[in-house]
Please model this.
Amino acid sequence: MAYEHILVETRGNVGLITLNRPKALNALCAGLIEDLGNALDEMEANDEIGAIVLTGSEKAFAAGADIKEMKDKEYIDVYMENFITKGWEHVTTCRKPVVAAVAGYALGGGCEMAMMCDFILAADTAKFGQPEITIGTIAGAGGTQRLPRYVGKSKAMEMNLTGRIMEADEAERSGLVSRIIPADDLIDEAITTAQKIANMSRPVAMAAKEAVNRAFETTLKEGILFERRTFHATFALEDRKEGMEAFAAKRQPQFKNR
Ligand code: DAK
Model:
């Protein structure tokens, strides 16, 4: 499929999606969101791909939803057309693991898009923020909901109320990102990490992702039960048998994704 606002490539068994509106710092216009959804669907359907990396440019992962696209809208427009809701959370329904590789600005919808991925690897240049309040509105795609779950109420509240930008160091300290990587190495490291995931048993990686995500949707008791039953379910897989037999035989497992 041809894309206007993103670049799509495959590196081994990893799909790489690069947001590509450099003149607008990858502002997330409707066309880009549509492109992204289509690319995720293609990668989800491609058996060769086991994990996906979502990235932007050196200067910006994404500087937010496209302010110029929304500036002239009225309440009645955004309410009636359910403005920019369609497709925005597509990445959260992707069953294959998605790693965000963030360099530069991840602001507003850009920060929210990164948080929708399974985890965030940050360049040392990464800057996260929910500056919507500075343009007279509030976050609309999880900045008031996912950010507190990552960094706690105090930091999330300050960021949403002041628009303060969080640099990479603080983002790592606060648990927003899993690791900081020198900017020049970000993509290679993200691909290597995604490759590692893609080389695991695919159904097991998908189950692990589902189980961790469950932690944010349910009580501890229900989450633990879900985890227990999912753990039991892995015993129906050839890959579980292979993994344990390989360990005992001191060799590398050969997973078949079955
Ligand atoms: N939208 C449109 N264009 C943008 C943009 C954005 N968010 N951010 C930057 N640009 C454009 C600039 O207008 C400029 O274009 P030209 O003037 O060259 O035509 C170009 O990108 C370069 O930007 P700057 O000249 O400003 O570059 P600087 O290095 O000086 O500053 C900056 C970089 C990132 C600090 C600055 O560009 C900035 O403050 N950008 C806006 C950040 C922001 O406020 N973001 C939040 C937007 S609101 C929802 C889903 C999502 C959302 C809401 C609802 N639903 C599902 C319902 C999300 C809302 C938002 O994200």
